[in-house]
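Quick sanity check, Selenoprotein W-related protein:
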Amino acid sequence: MPIENRLPRVEIEFCTGCKWHLRAGWMAQELLLTFNNTVGEVALIPGKSAVFIVRVNGDVVYDRKEHGRFPEMKELKQLIRNVIAPEMGLGHSDSAVKSASNPGKADIEPTTVVPAAVAGNDVKDNEEGVVPPAPECKTCQ
């Protein structure tokens, strides 16, 4: 029997105490829409201790604690694409991401823009949906 070529598995581990359910679900949905038949599954993994880690086939591609912020969706798509399908075009998401890891671009502090309903507890007085880096939640401290 031939060995089946498995499509990549993307995991989003998120802190349930911090109430990052909607953010993780929104990111999973965006990844499924973008990568369509290029990924085999996108898994949501409940965690704790303010964790927000994205892995492809078990390898970490983004860790919120390491970067001090959530990934921009465009940035996350590029990181995952570079692992699973480097030749794949991402359309408007292929333009350079303005971040500290991208020298030569604007020197601005990156933020993640998500719909306010998705941002959940992170957005209180900000109707534009701009989410600043999240502090540790009281449950996880």
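Posting the structure with no commentary besides this: DSSP finds four helices and six strands in the chain.
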